[in-house]
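Something for you to look into today, if you have time. What I am after is a single protein written out in full by you. I want to see for myself how the chain folds. Could you add the entry underneath, on a fresh line?
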Amino acid sequence: MTVDKAPAPLVLELGCGKGEYTLGLAKRFPEKNFIGVDIKGARLWRGAKTALEQNYLNVVFLRT
């Protein structure tokens, strides 16, 4: 997903951890785009890996 060109509404979750909530929302609302943000890369990796495995095209994770 290219966030800056995304036509759908954008939902931002700060402090997303492993991304369980972000992924759940992405699955439930495929018409929206989601960004999960966290400071811990190891936690984000789990969410990003799950998103890839489940082929979620409406979610990305960002380490800050």
